[in-house]
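Incident log, entry 3
Record: Tyrosine-type recombinase/integrase (351 residues)
Problem: checksum mismatch between cached and fresh output.
Input:
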Amino acid sequence: MSTKKYRARIWNPEIKKKIDLGYYDSEEERDLVEAQAKLDLSQHRTPKVIEDRSRGGELFVTFAERTLLDRKRRVTLSTWTNYQAMLRKWVIPTFGQMKLRDITPRDIDRWFNEVLPQGSPSNGQRYSILSMVMIRAVKMQEIPSNPCIVEGVAATKTKRRPTWSWSDFQVLYEAAATDQERALLWALAGSGCRIGEALALNVEDIDMPNSEIVVSHHMVRTQRVQGTKAHPEQVRYLTIPPQAPEALQTHLNGSGRAMDQPVFVNSRGGRLGYDRARRTFDSIRSSRGLDDLVIHDLRHLSLTAFGKTGATLAEIMQRGGHSDMRTALRYQHASRDRDRALVQRMAEMIP
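Fresh output:
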């Protein structure tokens, strides 16, 4: 779709940063420009930087990087990290060296249908990242219109998840092979916390006498970050049913772990990572034929059960750590029996 370009850059020791010298059609041309720039620096001259400052002349890669930095102020760290990973893996290789004004609807259509893996449920997100960059380019008056016009992508819906019961959870729990696996299952299902929040727990965050988990950190890849996914400064105190502290106590007994050490650990004694936790979970569920069950379903199971107790929307939002009311509403399911009971109470109030 586009001819490969070669980026010229040199290190400027005076300002202690690299200088971009533009993109060139061949390695020889790039090397020549870099050599001339180094000579200029050695003779205290400012290197010449080739840059297209006309409207839409900026390369997609540099404009996209600035777009993500602008977006970083308005989304969670984990969301921004996901944006960055998708952009670098799926979008930059195709469009990175193209000028904004040269990207056409035909280019994007070919990318979506020929480059992205066919049928992948993540294609909508990859497309939305590209569209986000191009929408900003329109707002900045770099291009006249957004070339992202592939039909039906924005309307793509995530496939409806199966509904799981506590009986399914019991099957899963009985299939777990170690105390740690059983403790992690109960930490998730008992509190409704996110997997990243559970993996960030330290021993001091488990209050056994009061049957409570304190969620004050979450994991972003391998980094333990303060706050929760939706709120950087949030701390949630989550009461858990009796089975959960029992499983956690059994897991921690005799471990000799200090209060500031992780609750869930890997084979080397370090903090258990998401990939390892997910693979272990997948192995447990597959051993019992629950192949459609994913680790996030335990959070859904927990918050749905909490919602059925008659909890208010505000209480569900607080327990789940939600900032979006629409997300919390998913867990406020009303059973038919409860609906009948409420209507019966209403009828008793009618004269």
